[in-house]
Amino acid sequence: MEKEIYTITTLRDDPMIAGRCVGFYFKIEQAIQDVLDNSYDIYEAGYYPYCVIEAVKDGIYSIMRTELWFQWSEIENGYKELPKKPDKFARLVCFGIG
């Protein structure tokens, strides 16, 4: 079984502006918890309203990735998981590595 890493990348509202991979984990539960906790202020006071966790296998251009998407909620003052990838990012892949 191939091992995966789970990259956390924060993104601006404009998909044409590069995101920022702020870290990775070997366990997806840890990655999700740090996003939900806004650990180390990855939201950066409004600079990064979106966040994606990607499951990445070893190798070059690992295209087949699982993605979990989050968007900042002012009402709940934290990232909330989205049911699907936002349309504005639909044609983009490889946010954290590649």
Quick structural overview:
With 98 residues, the chain is mainly beta. 9% of the residues lie in helices and 35% in strands. The protein has one domain.
Q: How large is the count of helical segments?
A: 1
Kindly state the number of beta strands.
5
The gross shape turns out to be: globular
What is the domain tally? 1
Q: Kindly report the average pLDDT value.
A: 93
Largest pleated sheet: 5 strands, antiparallel
Structural class: mainly beta
**Percent helix among the residues?**
under 10%
β-sheet strand percentage = 25-35%
Question: Strands of the biggest beta sheet: in what spatial order?
Answer: 2-1-3-4-5
User: How far apart lie the N and C ends?
Assistant: 22 Å
Q: What is the ordering of alpha helices and beta strands?
A: EEHEEE
Task: Name the poorly predicted regions.
Answer: none
Tell me what the structure shows.
- The structure is a single chain.
- With 98 residues, the protein is mainly beta.
- The protein has one domain.
- The chain is built from 1 helix and 5 strands.
- It has a 5-stranded antiparallel beta sheet, with helices on one face.
- The longest helix is centred in the N-terminal third of the chain and has 9 residues.
- The chain is globular and about 40 Å long.
- 21% of the residues are buried.
- The mean pLDDT is 93.
What are the SSEs and their pairings?
Blueprint lengths: L3 E8 L8 E6 L2 H9 L13 E8 L8 E8 L4 E4 L17
Antiparallel strand pairs: 1-2, 1-3, 3-4, 4-5
Summarize this structure as a short list of keywords or feature phrases.
98 residues; five-stranded antiparallel beta sheet; 5 strands; 9% helix; mainly beta; 1 helix
